[in-house]
Amino acid sequence: MIKISETIFPKTFINDYALNPIERKIFQILSESDFVYNYSSLNQLKFEIELRINIIEASKEFNKSKIQFKVFSEARCNPDFWELTPAGGFQLKKDILPAQGIKDIFSNSFKYATECSTAIIIIYYKALLKIFPDELFNTAFQNIYLRNWNYIDSDLNVFTYYKDRDFLPADCRYFKNPDFDPEKSQWQGENVIDLGNDTYFGHGIGIKNTESIVTILNQNRKPNATQSAYLTNSVTNPDYKHLANLYFNYISKTRYKFFKKIKPVR
């Protein structure tokens, strides 16, 4: 169920707003669950749903881009915006604004190549740029380093946890390949974004359903392998509530500054 400020939120919400099918699915999963999902305000819930939709859209944009899949040792980036580190990560150059750096990845995608975990972080930033004004984005993420969620800005607050239910569209899921070929370590698993309706985007694999991803991973197992690849119950997400608070605090302060500039009517 959903609670807003400790009050159970009515399921009739779904009938009060023009929700698209994915938005409707997200709300249904949250509201019909036995687990209690707490939000401080309706805006905080709406923000999470909107950001999830944007993550899905950013995943589709990534899929259409020319960003290649390469292992970290073969990664590359646009040197005008990013520095390639020895670990295969992308460090934003000091004279480049964060929003500019992320936008360049999509506008000059042919200049980039990286692994699937880095793709997930790029997708999160791209999705946030659809909501955050550039000014807020540049303030919140001043020192972007793209590799995986162990090397990111604290304000994105990406974390991994495990559960056996309530998997939501835009969750980052993981397909594990326990018997992967040691000579092809990139096939030990695949980080994917859940697009809804049993479809997932994984960098290097594209948009596929569960069966297709398992089949691809199984084709890259060691000789005489016995264990099939499978979708795990791990979920990796940004901190939606924290990001919502950043956004609404910024909007509130911006509005306050705007009204201060207006001369009172006499």
TrEMBL record:
Residue runs in coiled coils: none
One MF annotation (Gene Ontology) recorded for this entry: protein-glutamine gamma-glutamyltransferase activity
Keywords associated with the record: Sporulation, Transferase
GO BP term, pick one: sporulation resulting in formation of a cellular spore
One Pfam family cited in the UniProt record for this chain: TGL
NCBIfam families: PRK03187.1
Protein name: Transglutaminase
